[in-house]
Structure formats: C-alpha cells, structure tokens
Amino acid sequence: MYDDQSHPLLAQVPLTVSPFVSLPTATTLPYTYKTLPSTLPPSSTEDRSGASDADQARPRYIVSASGQAARPDDIVASCRALETHLKQLQSKAQDEIHEWEASIRERELAEKRRVAPGWLDREEKILQPARSAAQGPSVSLLDDAPDESKDARLAAEEPTSEGDQLDRAFGTMRVT
To answer: Which residues are paired to 62 by β-bridges?
Structure first.
C-alpha cells in the first residue's frame, strides 16, 4: 500500500480541481522584520518590587487571564494556607456549636431544677411528700366515712324532685 503504485480502483476515479479551494501560498515578510532572540527579557508589567533575588531568578511561567503570574510552588503554598484557614474556621464553628449545645443543656437543667428542686442533686429519685408534725391522725379520702356522716351526706345528695334526678343522671339538655 505504501508503494508508488496507486490502487486500481482509485486510479479509475477522476480528480477534479475545485474553484472554491485555494492552496496556501508563502507569505512575504516586510523588509523591517527582525527575528526574536531565543531568550526574552523580563516582563515590564510584572510587579517584582517585593520579590527577593532568589524569587526573581526562578521564572513565573503560570499566567492567569488577569495577568497574575505564579510558580507551581507558590500555588501549592497558597492552597495549603487556604486549607489551614478553612480548618481553623471549621474548628471555630465546631467550638461554637458545642458551646451552644452546652448552653441549651444548662438552660434545660436549670429549668428542671426550678420545677423540681433537689431532684437532680440526689441519687434517690422517689419523691415523697414531707409529713408535718401538726397533722392529726391520718385519714384517707378513700376510707369509708363514719355512719353518722354517711347519712348526712346521702341526705344532702338526694334530689328533691324527679326532674332534678333526671338532670343529675343525664345532664341538662336543651331542646331547640
């Protein structure tokens, strides 16, 4: 295929010259044309006032669209500085969150102590009312009352008419 002979099928296809395609021509240079030197002088737009001699010796070959030039190690150093700054911000934010959660817990604890003082300060958690010495014999409300008070209570509860009994049993109902 790389020999000087063309393929027999391709030899049968006629070649035509298109009037729309023009072949490139050699450009003519002006008489004032000068060749560029192999090494370029330093850029006049670059700010080197704060750079030391060692920094000026190393070329800055990464140039951004805004015109800033940097070396790869400068970029790595700025990325590391950004990383440490972000870590500091994150640790400060975590500390603030922990302080905020601790203040919430303290407020809830203070509220619990206000509602039930002494409840959280002791190990025993059974609350019992304190008995006063001035109280007489303890009488439970669930115990049966003596017979004479029972008769008085039944008489006080007895309704006077059948309508009162019905109202008491079913409640008052309004008819509209």
So the answer is: 70
